[in-house]
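INPUT
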Amino acid sequence: MRRETDEIRMVLGAWFREEGKDYPWRRTADPYAILVSEVMLQQTQIATVLGPKDYYRRWLEIFPDVATLARAPEDAVLKAWEGLGYYRRARNLQKAARAVVEEFDGVFPSRAADILKLPGVGRYTAGAVASFAFNLPEPIVDANIARVLARLYDYRGHIDSEPGKKFLWDRASALVAGEGAREFNSAIMELGQRICLPRAPACRDCPVAASCASREKNPGELPLKKARVEIEKVDEHVLFCAREESILLHREEKGRRREGLWRLPERPREELAGLPLLLEMKYSITRYRVTLRVYDAAAPAKPGPGEKRIPLEDLPGIPMPAPYRKAVETILADSTAQLELGPGMV
Ligand code: SF4
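OUTPUT
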């Protein structure tokens, strides 16, 4: 087994040195910058993070270190995250920065066990920061690596069961042991992203094909998972009330998923009956498929709890979930187009 493990490490390392992609977070050993990249990439594609909006670079420009992020106002943090969705990640990043300042005297911890104590950091992220920033032999298992490991070792149990998780973490630990953890973890992750693809693994191009136990046994059917959670349809009925250069908005209360973000105020469906429908759009968030319907307020609406009139000129500077930003901008541009947003764009 040890020989096989060494062989996989060696071959994968050589492949990565030749073929590995050059991402900005691979050019740094700053644990904070690596944490930012890991948190951004948790539910967002690389292409979005590095795309036209350049979220990663922009974030590091606004908050170049933990101290700056720790003392930033929440609005600025949410605004910088706008468009990436799952805003809890931004809040946790700030909490983690504060914890580094307050509990580690501003010095980012290097041990995975200490990194794990930071808010919002789980086993994967702690291992990623420890291995990518400090080159420590800490394992990581994300969806890509889980797929590679299940196929490499022809694991036929459910990878999301407790024994399945243990199996994957044990294998990842055995493979990363020794020197060169940064390179190995990057390499196996990239193998999953580019070669060992979910439906059609490109086994012919795979550097570890000779060691792969499932290669001849239809690896595309692996990994196995427990039954999937059903998609649930949800309706959101909201009011568009823009009068005299201001718009009525609601700020999400503490404890809500979109805490601190501004959105169009929700109203019971009966209250909106008879009002003109301005726009209908669909978006996805986790297991929910949401239909957002925006109605035109016939008369000036009285602000409810948590609601406020915001000057239209202030709109670009306040944090807003992406579907609501899109809806408001579309209506203000006098369009009634049917819109469709991809998963996570909230
Ligand atoms: S041989 Fe195929 S199934 Fe096995 S690790 Fe490589 S790409 Fe994945």
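end of record. The radius of gyration is 23 Å.
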